[in-house]
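# nightly structure sweep
# worker-07 picked up a monomer target from the shared queue
# config: single-sequence mode, recycle default, output format = structure tokens
# input follows
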Amino acid sequence: MKHSRISIVFQLVIILLIIFILYQLLNILFLIFSIILLVISFLFFNKKEKIEYLAYLDDDVWSLKFKNNKEIYRVGIKNILNHQLYVVVQFKQSEQKPIVIWFDQLNRTQWKNLKVLSVLK
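# output follows
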């Protein structure tokens, strides 16, 4: 899967909104400190593992592979939450964190299939 541009834009808009609100509330020293913390948190949370593919295998078994990792995980999907712009996929295995798939990461038919699957799950 390719990296989502919409998620970056969404995060940056939220950060700018927070900075605007903090600008109204704080003096300049605290504002600069808050901006530095926001930038650090933005960089830290964007360092998560990128998904190379999520593929259907059989019945409730899916394969999941991350980039920069040779291991292919067999996972079961517990729940798929559809939030229109993105879909959250939760796994049965507790060691696997939920993944977020934005609509611009997939082509149109794959996105429609994922939305149908979210209705069925």
